[in-house]
Design goal:
Rossmann fold, binds alpha-L-arabinofuranose, 11 helices, 6-stranded parallel β-sheet, 340 residues, alpha/beta
Length: 340
């Protein structure tokens, strides 16, 4: 496998040949030496200064969290001068697999991606390994039998987020009552782990029970639609609290609760995950009780890891991002320092 410097030199040579060919094709004349208007000769391309090409496959734009995550990654790539090949998969694993294969064909230097679901990655990851391209996972994990198929995974501890949400749920409900749950994308790491962590902690509160649970696909529209069906169901009147796997679904559910003539945050206590700005607005308005933070600003950590990989320095296998829990009582103060 050619090393990075060789790849970059090769790429620069191809780029320079292409430009020469294009100039010749467009009929540009070479100015004679000594012509005052001739452009100064370009210094020979310096491979050590050329930046690597990074392929990044993003899940989509389903939530405010995801949009902040995309902005952070693109801004960091631009700030550090990397050539970022960014592809949006529109929530489909098949699109992500296609993008990953196209990164192999483009011979990128590092592949980074946020996998929409946990399973089904082994074949494409093996192809990438065979091509000698290092992989960095960000935000969501994959389930693979060979951990060497990726270098590192940078992201939050989703199980802990679920536990944190359940602890606050127990506190604000007095430890009893019927809960509705809006799950994230089926098969995704945050949906699986946030449910697991929440249920694990709920075992300490046997009078708190989940009576309705369904996916809201991490979107506002679906969160609203599913909450409406929960409230109209025969068990709807028993619901005293909602646990939503992200803020967007909680915000959609708030609309459905109001449309049903109930007061979100009072008649139905609500806890969600992400801590995006609109969640703080909802807490200040008294409509949301708590949001558990999941930091989307992963760009700096992602590019630190990519740079270490390119420099062949050791990288920790798991990099866990830090997060807090925000409740209604301090929301007006907390919002002042929010970055997303
Ligand atoms: O993987 C992170 C989750 O994906 C966020 O919590 C959610 O909002 C998003 O779409």
């Amino acid at each position: 496998m050619p090393d990075l410097a060789t790849k970059l030199t090769h790429r620069l040579a191809i780029a320079s040949l292409t430009i020469t060919a294009l100039l010749a094709f467009s009929g540009c004349e070479k100015k004679p030496a000594g012509d005052a208007h001739a452009s100064a000769p370009k210094p020979a391309a310096d491979a050590s200064k050329a930046k690597a090409r990074i392929g990044f496959s993003q899940i989509g734009a389903e939530s405010d969290w995801r949009k902040a995550n995309t902005d952070s990654i693109q801004a960091e790539a631009a700030a550090r001068g990397y050539d970022l090949v960014f592809v949006d998969a529109q929530q489909k694993q098949e699109n992500q697999i296609k993008a990953l294969r196209s990164f192999i064909v483009q011979d990128v230097d590092v592949i980074a991606f946020s996998p929409v679901v946990e399973t089904g990655w082994e074949p494409v990851l093996k192809e990438i390994k065979q091509a000698g391209i290092p992989v960095v996972l960000t935000d969501r994990a994959v389930e693979v039998s060979d951990p060497d198929l990726f270098i590192t995974f940078i992201g939050a501890d989703f199980v802990e987020e679920g536990r944190r949400a359940a602890r606050v749920m127990a506190k604000i409900t007095g430890g009893k009552g019927s809960i509705a749950e809006l799950q994230g994308t089926p098969g995704s790491a945050p949906a699986i782990d946030r449910k697991k962590g929440f249920e694990e902690e709920l075992k300490n509160h046997p009078d708190l029970k989940i009576i309705k649970t369904q996916t809201g696909e991490f979107t506002r529209a679906k969160g609203r639609e599913v909450m409406e069906t929960f409230l109209k169901s025969p068990e709807g009147k028993q619901i005293i609290a909602l646990y939503a796997h992200n803020d967007d679904m909680a915000l959609g559910a708030i609309q459905a609760i109001e449309e049903a003539g109930l007061k979100p945050g009072t008649d139905i206590k609500i806890i969600s995950i992400d801590a995006v700005r609109p969640a703080f607005d909802a807490m200040i308005a008294g409509k949301l009780n708590c949001t558990v933070e999941c930091n989307p600003l992963l760009g700096p950590q992602l590019f630190d890891a990519i740079e270490a990989v390119l420099a062949k320095q050791p990288v920790e296998k798991r990099i866990v991002t830090k997060a807090s829990v925000f409740e209604q009582a301090t929301a007006a103060e907390d919002i002042k320092t929010r970055k997303y």
